[in-house]
Amino acid sequence: AQKITQTQPGMFVQEKEAVTLDCTYDTSDPSYGLFWYKQPSSGEMIFLIYQGSYDQQNATEGRYSLNFQKARKSANLVISASQLGDSAMYFCAMREDNQGGKLIFGQGTELSVKP
Amino acid sequence: GAVVSQHPSRVICKSGTSVKIECRSLDFQATTMFWYRQFPKKSLMLMATSNEGSKATYEQGVEKDKFLINHASLTLSTLTVTSAHPEDSSFYICSASDPAGGPDEQFFGPGTRLTVL
Q1: Is A5 on the interface with B (CB under 8 A)?
Q2: Which residues of A touch B44 (CB under 8 A)?
Q3: Is residue A68 a contact partner of residue A58, using CB atoms and an 8 Å limit?
Q4: Following DSSP, what letter does each residue of B39-65 receive, concatenated?
Q5: What is the distance between the alpha carbons of residues B113 and B21, in angstroms, rounded to a whole number?
Q6: Nearest to residue B112, comparing CAs of B34, B12, B41?
Q7: Which of A13, A38, A57, B82 has its CA 20 to 30 A from that of A50?
């Protein structure tokens, strides 16, 4: 079974608007972490935001926020005030704390920001 | 922040040759490093967990004799693609966690693009 699912292969957003990238996950481990990474065409993986399974509040980092719905097992990324430089692939990932630290990635969403 | 380097960044080789890719943690010691493979426009697929001083743990379906991993020191892990073939052409990325860091501290190398002719 897919542990991390991103159902949006591609998304378009107008510059300066907000966009939500979807991510759902599946785990029976009570302790886990959820990550979002940005991958521009250069290939580097840029860490954006992290949410721990026991964190009470939704994580925020500048223009990025994570909408963590634990009961629904979703961890959507919200990017506010989109910029042209936000155009990239975005990956959701999960680390189950009983699995030695490895990350399992979703399929990715390609975000295109239109001027 | 912590930095992970990879070398080479790009390599082109002939079919049948072996290629070694290095992953280094530059300012921290990493007892564990991870190797991922990525095809164009696709997800990162975990290949193996590299453990310093012991054998690597390979994911299901990854040929351990094909992809040799050595973690000889706390700052260096190497991935050797043996007898490379065109289907091994891919983007290989390593990552490492800083044991002294927080739960979100996993750092990725810049990746190595392998093309096998």
Answers
A1: no
A2: 45, 91, 103, 105
A3: yes
A4: -TTS-EEEEEEEETTS--EEPTT--TT
A5: 10
A6: B12
A7: A13
Please tell me the least confidently modeled range out of A79-83, B80-84, B93-97.
Answer: B93-97
Substitution target in B38, B47, B50, B106 with the highest count of A β-carbons within 10 Å is B106
Instruction: Determine the Cα–Cα distance for residues B115 and B98; give it in Å rounded to an integer.
Output: 31
| Strand, helix or coil for residue B87 | helix
pLDDT digits (tens, 9 = 90+) for B10-59: 999 999 999 999 999 998 888 889 999 999 889 999 999 998 888 899 99
| Selection from B37, B45, B49 nearest residue B87 by Cα | B37
Reported as a single tens digit per residue, the pLDDT across A32-46 is 999 999 999 999 999
Distance CA A64, CA B70 (A): 37
Residue of A nearest to B102 (CA): A50
Separation between Cα atoms, residue A33 and residue A56, nearest integer Å: 13
Identify the residue with better confidence: B107 or A23: A23
